[in-house]
Design goal:
Elements (H helix, E strand, L loop, with lengths): L11 E3 L2 E6 L2 E6 L10 H12 L7 E6 L24 H5 L3 H16 L7 E6 L2 E3 L1 H8 L2 E5 L3 E3 L14 H8 L1 H10 L3 E2 H7 L4 E3 L4 H14 L2 H13 L5 H20 L4
Parallel strand pairs: 3-4, 4-5, 5-7, 6-8, 7-10
Antiparallel strand pairs: 1-2, 2-3, 8-9
Helix pairs in contact: 1-3, 5-6, 9-10
Length: about 270
């Protein structure tokens, strides 16, 4: 299966993350298939840097992974006394104050927050395992295209932890509270058919067709004018927090901006 970002000069290539840019399309690739793209604080910092490195020309960001697994979740080395080289272990972090822990976790979360920026649309191409932090990284994106071998699971609760990398909000929004609780509390696998049926996935395809399906979706997203997509995304993102009347007001204000822009009339 051809790489979506092959033959492009990387903008960033470090700590298991590669960013390439082809005009309006950026591709963020997890590049440690030998460890099933297990995640670490260094990888999270690289993901944060990738988001900050996007040129203004980028409209769609594709998130993908090398190998047979999207991401097996947090690297278990984090739970060992030695942790990662040059990093405090999670045991060391647990000995810190609540304020110190809050700051550290907030820094980790930054790797997962920028995918929902209003000026871009993000698409996760997911195959194989997407466990824990891997599941949450896929959930961080606006859209998900999955291979028929995908296996989502939220295993944090089974380890005595909670999902804390921004995944709980989109999960509840996509599948509802009851199903989200059941998925998290049991740690069970969600396979491709259920993911597509419940809205976790926009599309499920055979693994060999994953890259082609993502290319087709990306082309469709780029077909609409950029500012119309930005305004529409903002409207939809805020809809659940607004009342029906407030949403009507937001629609009118957004449409007025679009009409003035199309007519060449400034505010």
């Amino acid at each position: 299966m051809a790489s979506l970002d092959q033959e492009l000069e990387p903008v960033l290539d470090k700590d298991g993350v590669r960013l390439t840019v082809d005009d309006a399309i950026a591709t963020v690739t997890l590049t440690n298939p030998a460890k099933r793209n297990a995640q670490s604080p260094a990888l999270w910092r690289a993901l944060t840097q990738a988001g900050r490195s996007l040129p203004g020309s980028v409209r769609v960001v594709v998130l993908r992974a090398e190998g047979q697994s999207f991401s097996a979740g947090l690297d278990r080395q984090a739970f060992t006394p030695e942790g990662f080289d040059g990093e405090p272990s999670f045991i060391d972090l647990a000995r810190g104050s609540d304020a110190e822990l809050d700051v550290t976790i907030a820094e980790y979360q930054e790797a997962f927050t920028w995918w929902r920026r209003s000026d871009i649309v993000t698409v996760a191409a997911v195959r194989g395992h997407a466990i824990g932090a891997g599941f949450q990284l896929a959930l961080a994106c606006d859209l998900r295209v999955v291979a028929d071998d995908v296996q989502f699971a939220m295993r944090e609760t089974s380890l005595g932890l909670v999902p804390d990398l921004t995944g709980t909000h989109p999960l509840v929004g996509l599948v509802g509270y009851a199903r989200a609780l059941e998925i998290c509390a049991t740690g069970r696998f969600v396979l491709a058919e259920e993911a597509e049926r419940t809205g976790l996935a926009n599309l499920a395809v055979p693994a060999a067709q994953l890259d082609d399906a993502v290319r087709d979706l990306t082309a469709a997203l780029l077909a609409a004018p950029r500012h119309a997509v930005i305004e529409t995304k903002a409207l939809l993102r805020g809809a659940t927090e607004r009342s029906y009347e407030d949403q009507r007001t937001a629609e009118r204000a957004s449409q007025a901006r679009r009409l003035r822009d199309l007519a060449g009339i400034g505010d």
